[in-house]
Amino acid sequence: MDEDHHMMYRQTEVRLWKGGTETEKPDFLVTEEPLEIRVNDLPAAVTMRTPGQDEALAVGFLATESILRSPDDLYDVLRCGDPDELNAGNVVNVYVDPERVPRDLNSRHRYANSSCGLCGRATIDHAIRTLPPLDSELVVPRNLIARLPEALRAAQPVFSRTGGLHAAGLFGPQGELLFVAEDIGRHNTVDKVVGQALRSGCWPLTDTLLMVSGRGGFEIVQKSLAVRIPVVCSVSAPSTLAVDLAREAGMILVGFLRGESMNVYAGADRIAS
After folding, report:
1. What gap in Å lies between CA 167 and CA 155, rounded to an integer?
2. How far is Cα 86 from Cα 63, in angstroms, rounded to an integer?
3. Residue 197 vs residues 89, 95, 122, 179, 203: alpha-carbon distances, Å
4. Are residues 173 and 230 in the same domain?
5. In three state form, how does the secondary structure of 122-149 look?
6. Nearby residues of 261 by Cβ (< 8 Å), 6 or more positions away
């Protein structure tokens, strides 16, 4: 594992009981720390995350918030360099085109925990904001979708060590893995792969597929729609709001994806057998 992966977990001792037998053994825990995201030196959000790919997380967050629309909007990404600032290592400043900075940025400063991408929104209307539907005509073979969970699982080194991380993989139209991320938060993994894509210039995302290791909740579908990802697949269940949004937006939404078995909740006519 590289140095980035080693920041994502730490070893601890646990007392283990099995039946009437007591033993002590080492265990590995997922790291969870706050990350403050700033835009042009202004505070934008604080999210609980697993350290690693922080710059991508910050950029992806701004993309799924529709602040960044293309690589041209992004000027630079820097970690806080002030050694006197508390938690300086957990602050990322994203410099963007000034025209892309919302006027209400300070007033909508928010906190998100590691399980919810919507916590701290100022209003429900802001959480369920209107996004234009997709005009995608992408047709995806069913056997290609069936291969995604195994490909994602093979790219999760920290999960193999800890068993406590979500993952997201962004795939190309032929099923090739483009970007992958692990994090304690489902929504963070999506932001991280989106951020990687935008920073690398792999944009737009109109012919990509997103595979997530957890459930396909509303925040996952909404983030995907914001950056125009037409296909969202998960190994678990979607929610009613996620399904409604996917259907209205013209997305393909697949749940309970486990090998050849899958439930298609939206866009079934664009999955080829």
Report:
1. 9
2. 27
3. 23, 17, 28, 7, 7
4. yes
5. CCHHHHCCCCCCCCCCCCEEHHHHHHHH
6. none
If 0-12 CB within 10 Å is exposed, 13-18 middle and 19+ buried, where does residue 26 land?
exposed
Q: Are residues 97 and 156 in the same domain?
A: no
* Average pLDDT rounded to a whole number, residues 190-197: 98
Q: Taking residues 45-66, what's their average pLDDT?
A: 95
- Position with higher pLDDT, 44 vs 158: 44
Q: Which of 90, 122, 154 marks a domain boundary?
A: 122
Take residue 215 and report the two structure tokens written for it: 């459930």
* Two structure tokens written together for 67: 């602040």
Q: Within this chain, do residues 77 and 147 fall inside the same structural domain, yes or no?
A: no
pTM: 0.90
Q: Which ranges constitute the DSSP H helices of the chain?
A: 3-6, 54-64, 124-127, 142-153, 157-162, 186-200, 218-226, 240-249
> Cα 208–212–215 angle (5° rounding)?
130
Residue 162 shares a structural domain with residue 230: yes
Same domain, 263 and 145: yes
Q: Each residue of 205-258: pLDDT tens digit?
A: 999 999 999 899 999 999 999 999 999 999 999 999 999 999 999 999 999 999
DSSP 89-100: GGEEEEEE-GGG
pLDDT at residue 139, as a whole number:
97
Query: What domain range is 53 assigned to?
Result: 33-122
- CA–CA separation, 160 vs 96, rounded Å? 36
- Over the stretch 148-169, which tens digit does the pLDDT of each residue have? 999 999 998 777 677 768 999 9
List, by residue number, the catalytic residues. 116
In this structure, the answer to whether residues 67 and 152 fall within a common structural domain is no
